[in-house]
Amino acid sequence: MDAYAIKKCINPACGLTYEINNDIYRCSCGSLLDIKYNKKPSRDLVETFYQRRNHGGNIYNESGVWRFRDLINFAGIDTENFEECARVLVSLDGSEGRLSKPYNMSKAADYAEMNHDSFLLQPEGYNPSGSFKDNGMSTAVTHAKMLGVKRIICASTGNTSASAAMYAANENMECDVYIPKGEIAPGKLGQAFQFGAQVIQVQGNFDDALAASLKNAKETGGYTVNSVNPFRLEGQKTIVYRVLEHLNWNPPDWIVYPGGALGNTSSCGKCLIELYEWGWIKKIPRMAIVNAEGANTFYELYNGLFEGKRLTWNDGRPDLAMVDRYYEHLDKKGIRPKTHATAIQIGKPANIVKALRALDFTNGIVVQVSDKEMSDGMSIVGLNGFDCEMASGAVPAGVRKLRREGLIKRDDVVVGILTGRQKDPGLAVEYHTNPNNMFAKPPTSH
Ligand SMILES: *Cc1c(COP(=O)(O)O)cnc(C)c1O
Ligand SMILES: [Zn+2]
Question: What pTM was computed for the model?
């Protein structure tokens, strides 16, 4: 195989490299790995990406992921030829990333106290399995296919398993999903079953399920598709490409994501670092990450609320001993992540170090919001005719908070990523049944 890309340790003091024809995702030093490309892509590709939108039936141009394939080209596909793409690239009939782009949502802008035309939300829920996870799953499963893998494995708060199971079904692979019993939205659990995955219910939370699935992958040779897999993060970069394309490649002032395992945070950071190094962008948007109050590890560590010292990237030498002490403190005190936004109910974010690098590069910030605030955020998105789940509601809620704290200005250009569709419709019914909620429209009787 021609080496279009390698894997490289993210720890600058180590920097070991690995070939990509294996499923190693962690360096021997313990750090995670990045995908590094051997060629610097030409800025002229901007025109190619635009032209591919007129796809003429080629699903690899229709796909909002593979349309940008030249920037995630670990598979070495340099062609417009459909058959050659189809031999390697995994797509659900061109549907991943196809409908997601930034939209103006005037009511959400009012709620977030932003100008109508400078506040945009990008609904990644309109992916085939209903969340942004499809962006990264199409690339991770492509890599699995390159290796001839028969069985993929993941732990999930619900959307990863839905996406993995969907692609596995379509590619004729087996799929094992480890889920925290009773802690995932019913719509997500239903998808795993419906797409034919083997569901393994874990007594415990997501952090326990991830540990169990990584152990099983190691013991049985299954291929892990969680966001520790660097090929996942490559596909998720296309979320940012679609934002930038919509803005004619003029970066916004802010990009806002909810924070769970921090895969998106890491992916966005890597994406911006690359574009900057390639000279594609001159301005670096600031990233704002929104934690749930009930699962706020990143918020506490990044803002120095534990041991009075901020956890930072520190030129590639973050204080990992402090992270260990924080996790010990959670375990000792019996503090479990607790929020109704189950997609971000994560206490030990696996990508925390890559996320620190992302915030360092973008002068980023981390804010936290309550379940009530996330419900309001979710509901105001609904009133614009878009649905999203509670974890995604963290985005408008977080922007509103940052506006009130004066960190975001009313006319800043802000793009928020709505990570997933509503798969827990009971939450919407509950919200609107209670007249005390900010946007409730309770049912009437007849
Ligand atoms: C997975 C997920 C998240 C968390 O994303 P990370 O990359 O793990 O931080 C947030 N929202 C939704 C809807 C998700 O499915
Ligand atoms: Zn290393």
Answer: 0.97
